Amino acid sequence: MNVCGGMIENYQSAPPLRHPPESGSANRVAYVDWLRVLALLGVFVIHVVSPFNPWDHWHIRSPERSRVLGAVVVLMAPWIMPLFMMLAGTSAWYSLRRRSNAAYVRDRVRRILIPLIIGILVLVPPQVYAERRLYDQFSGSFFEFYPRFFEGGIYPVGNFSWHHLWFLGYLFVYSLLALPLFRFWRGERGRHQLEWLARISSGPMGLLWLAIPILVERYFFWFALGRRNLLLSDWSGRSILFVLYAYGFVLAAEPGFGRNVDRQWRRFLALGVMGISALIALAWVGAIPSRLPPASEWWALAFWTVYAVGAWSLVVAVLGLGRRYLNSDTTALERGRHAGLAWYLVHQPVIVVLAAWVVTWSLGIWTKALALLLLSLAATVAVIALLQWGKSLRSRPRPAPFAVR
Question: For residues 342 and 5, what is the distance between their CA atoms, to the nearest angstrom?
Fold first, then answer.
């Protein structure tokens, strides 16, 4: 399972609202940042328990597995990346409000593409090295391994990979592909379309209408292009995130959409719990992911309907909970904003390297899982603190060479 480490488009707080798109106060936008920070922590937990997940083939695999820990992954995997992509689309609305197209593209290069390239060169090789060492596929030092990172083709056959940074690649492409559409939606005709969408999603089926494009696209990719990695991390699931990216922009641009979320999130919470519970039950008895139906069978459509509706329902529910209860701009939130990008970049390399050591211990699975959680948390916080300290030193004003002290 390679969920992605909790990224959204800006990695920073959205700018203060001079003209809030909703009737609430300007700090209403704080819920977007809160959800981003909490989702980052959720992805951290997913990656910590992934070595012990019996239903997936992660980078590091413990000899002992637990269906309980696997259920944690199944619980969050279907909806957490759609949530991230929606938040990214929301951030895009604020970014385009104060930038030209050229400035927006430059900002995407600086915030997304450059971290992606640096991360691939610096943060992914230690993860592949730790895996190769653990499974006796390489025996030398990391410095001896590094040149081989670029050899042998694409991971897992070869060594070259982007691992958890895949989200940055998709996000960069989506941000460029969606730019003409987002500019259109900011115009007069586009606003009428968004108002119509808000009216449609306030009717009897409510926001459930918006699950239909997700289902149609998901089933199309499953039918036309086949499956890979099944259920939790299939690449076709990443392709449908473009729809969620657009929905996030609509959430910020059209007040009626947000009001629909406020009115409907409770029913979607119940619907989402039922859908995800069904997925957990199917995984528990071994029906998925090993025996997912081929696209030609009738129950493939039934399965992906439950999957898509359950995932979309929980996205709506989480948005509603955030909008209702997470409107405070606190010191903790400010710290989370500043640490967001670093946390995303650093957390999985830390977990993978430590997991390659922890899974070899002669201890019980729960002891190893708890140790990996605590060690990874402490190491990630320490690395981020070190990075922020170094950044503060670089930004500190220096006295002139001949200044009197």
Answer: 10
